[in-house]
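Summary for the lay section of the report: proteins are chains of building blocks that fold into shapes. Here we show the chain for DUF3106 domain-containing protein and then a coded description of the shape we predicted for it.
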Amino acid sequence: MRRCSPSSARRGVLTVAGLGLLLASAAVAAALPAPPVAQVAGAGAALPEGVDTLLETLPPAQRAVLRQRVERWQSWTPEARAAFAERAASWDALPPLERGRRREAWQAWRALPPMQREQVGGMSREFAARPVDEREALRARFQALDTSVQRGWLLGPVLGADYWRLHGLLAQVPGDQRAPLLEVLAAMTAAQRAQLYVLVQRTPPQDRDALRRELVATPAGRRQQWLWEQLDR
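The coded shape description reads as follows.
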């Protein structure tokens, strides 16, 4: 019986993770609800009167987004509007929890660096080329993972692969600290994240918030030295 090497098994799980992230985000892209004005207008109908007046009441950032959506809607043919309205109806029919899951996946996809998006796309193409039974087996393996590990793959192929190491640091991280922390973790090497894992394991849960803050505050050029100093304590 042929055994899979650790590297091939790892690639298999990565492929499933990448596929899950890519397909979830693609599903959201195909099923996102129509822009607010478009939903009111209906397929083939003219935009409601008073849109310009409404736009002037909004903050500049929201005004720009809505104006862009209005212009996009106006550029569509009646057939395109009808197709989009159908997708919007399908989106509205989804349970709230499923809509939330897909939004989260889409936001995670958008947050990935371009190179990692390409990597995930390659994983998806590799997965699609596999026989059906292999795809189903890989899906089953991924579904068998702990829910927190599955969610960890939303961080992408780099941090997702190390999520089992990073979970102790990312668990219950305050919202305002999450983005800076993820940026630092993504900039670290795999070896540095392995060292950080050892450090997190040594740190009591009540002291991990201070550890996170110190890690984020440490300049990139001094990060390796900081890790050595912390591990030598």
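Put simply, here is one thing we learned. Residues 162-233 form one domain.
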